[in-house]
Amino acid sequence: MGRLGGFLFACWLLLSSSGCSRHGAANEFRVALSADYPPFEFTDKGEVVGFDVDLARAVAHALGRTAVFHDMNFCAILPSIQAGMVDAGISTITATASRIDSYAFSDPYFYEELHIIFRAVEPIKGKEDLRSLKVACQLGSTMEIWLRKHGQGAKIIPMDSNVQAIEALKAGLVDALVVDSFQAQEFCARNGTLDHIFLERSGDGYAVALRKDSPLLSTINDILGELDEDGTIAALREKWKLQ
């Protein structure tokens, strides 16, 4: 089995074991997410919480439905949408050109700053220093997209989660990790041997991912516009310290 075939098979296994059903109740808004990315989505005392979780609940309420969350590895989210096992993915997902060919995406609801984490004893001054370094990122994330466009010759090491990547960085298996600003602050606060710097603002915003033929797209765009205008999204940014 080739590299791509192995990756797709692994995602199928993850999807099969995620507990998703092909048939949800009519009053449910089934949302796929990967709860390993605070403050957007993470688990606290056994409950999935975060900015995206609250946003999904607000969208579900406007739809007259109840949000039901399916936590899975990030690489399984889009396949679960394609298979009809969930209605949407709300999990810091970027609408790339290749993804737009197969899925529908809402208008962006959030734009991110990208940072790079490194060992403090081996400081990195900017993206020009990435050349020839082993740089980790979460598989399928905005950060991987950025690295493949602007990585300055870096050797890109995609990983299933940033927690895994941080451990690889601490162990010296990679030289750096690209994450968002909030992840960078959190990881460096917990690990005194690490430091981080700003890279640039991502031009690719986070959006709600849907099936290509989803009838919900225009309605969700209207809802996101209303949530922006009435201050709900701003309030959620403040609640989760995303200012």
Characterization of this structure:
There is one protein chain. By secondary structure, this protein is of the alpha/beta class. The protein contains nine helices and 13 strands. α1 crosses α3 (74-82) and α2 crosses α8 (217-229). The radius of gyration is 18 Å and the shape is globular.
Number of strands: 13
Oligomer: single chain
Q: Total number of helical segments?
A: 9
- What is the rounded Rg? 18 Å
Binned, the helix content reads 25-40%
Number of domains: 2
Can you summarize this structure?
The chain is an alpha/beta fold and 243 residues long. It is built from 9 helices and 13 strands.
Set out the fold topology.
Layout: H1 3-16, E1 28-33, E2 36-37, E3 41-44, E4 47-49, H2 51-63, E5 66-71, H3 74-82, E6 88-94, H4 97-100, E7 103-105, E8 113-119, E9 134-138, H5 142-150, E10 155-159, H6 162-170, E11 176-180, H7 181-190, E12 194-201, E13 206-211, H8 217-229, H9 232-239
List key phrases describing it:
single chain; 243 residues; alpha/beta; D-Maltodextrin-Binding Protein, domain 2; five-stranded mixed beta sheet; 13 strands; 37% helix; disordered N terminus
